[in-house]
Amino acid sequence: MATHLNSFDAIYQVVQLIPQGKVTSYGAIAAYLGMKGGARMVGWAMNASHTLENVPAHRVVNRNGILTGKNFFGGNRMQELLEEEGIQVKEDKIVGFQQHFWDPSIEL
DNA sequence: GGTATGACAATGA
DNA sequence: GTCATTGCCATAC
């Protein structure tokens, strides 16, 4: 149902819908939007959403559970945010990633 | 309108 | 199991 929204808006919506303490992967969002191979584009949208404060991009990590965009948050800002939500982060990687994984294609 | 880039993902060796 | 290469979509120049 994201066909009416632009790719960026659609991604923003999904990211904002991520529950606190949960994380998802770029591919999951892309797949939910129908852009299975457009995972890179999701990261691109995140870059644009970085200017916004309503988009918890810190809950979006790659399929490996690594905080790829941590560098874009300005240091360990991303890791601290995740830890505050109850997510353990070790070496820029989420501990029990599958445990905190939130798939929009299933939850939504 | 074509080329280059991007916070990825999947496959092959 | 890890490393390297290719593919995908959309945006930016």
Automatic annotation (TrEMBL):
Domain annotation Methylated-DNA-[protein]-cysteine S-methyltransferase DNA binding: ranges = 9-87
Read off the Gene3D superfamilies from this record: Winged helix-like DNA-binding domain superfamily/Winged helix DNA-binding domain (1.10.10.10)
Q: Which SUPFAM superfamilies is this protein grouped with?
A: Methylated DNA-protein cysteine methyltransferase, C-terminal domain
Signal peptide span: none
Keyword list (alphabetical) reads: DNA damage
NCBIfam families in the record:
ogt
This protein is called what?
Answer: MGMT family protein
Query: Could you tell me which species this protein originates from?
Result: Aquirufa ecclesiirivi
